[in-house]
Design a protein that fits this description.
single chain; mainly beta; Porin; 8-stranded antiparallel β-barrel; about 10% helix; about 65% strand
């Protein structure tokens, strides 16, 4: 009987101790829409983000995003990007609601396709030629984000962003779900 009481008391004390410290790391997955190419292409965008809370006001986060579009001036467009952002939470980020402002660096690889030549052959069939330009550039991120803790582990947020690149811009909204590790 003593062994059972001892094992229960040790188990309960360890679980209570482990719940006192909130995790400083969380993983967030986002889905939304953006206007890329100076607003020319409407994309469906996805993002994976890993956040590390430095203290109650600052966090840092690397992320990877992809998007695809077949609605706009080009026939098809897609991009892949990598971001490194620093966030400031004016109302602290250790509560149930976290409003934060972010600024960071980004790398974008943007690929599109468009028809640049079309003519009719002698047999009556149409012939088209397409171009697939690839643009790679570095840029700056500006982010406004609000996240709500649904439970101690699960997060739900809304993100508005603008990414300014040389010769390109990407702006949009995204809904994000997260899990605190």
């Amino acid at each position: 009987m003593r062994k059972i009481i001892f094992i229960l008391s040790v188990t309960l004390s360890l679980s209570l101790f482990s719940q006192e410290n909130a995790s400083k790391i969380d993983l967030r997955l986002g889905m939304g829409s953006s206007l890329v190419g100076s607003g020319d292409m409407l994309t469906t965008a996805f993002e994976n983000e890993l956040n590390y809370r430095i203290n109650s006001h600052y966090a840092i986060s690397p992320s990877i995003g992809i998007a695809n579009s077949n609605y706009g001036v080009d026939d098809i467009a897609h991009y892949i990007q990598g971001n490194l952002n620093m966030f400031y939470s004016p109302f602290q980020n250790n509560k149930s609601m976290d409003f934060r402002i972010g600024l960071g660096a980004s790398f974008l690889e943007y690929t599109s396709s468009f028809e640049y030549e079309r003519y009719t052959l002698l047999n009556g069939k149409e012939y088209s030629r397409y171009d697939f330009p690839v643009e790679k550039s570095f840029g700056v991120n500006v982010i406004l984000e609000n996240t709500v803790k649904l439970s101690p582990r699960f997060l739900l947020g809304l993100k508005a962003f603008t990414q300014i690149y040389y010769g390109n811009i990407n702006s949009g909204l995204m809904v994000k779900v997260g899990y605190s590790l």
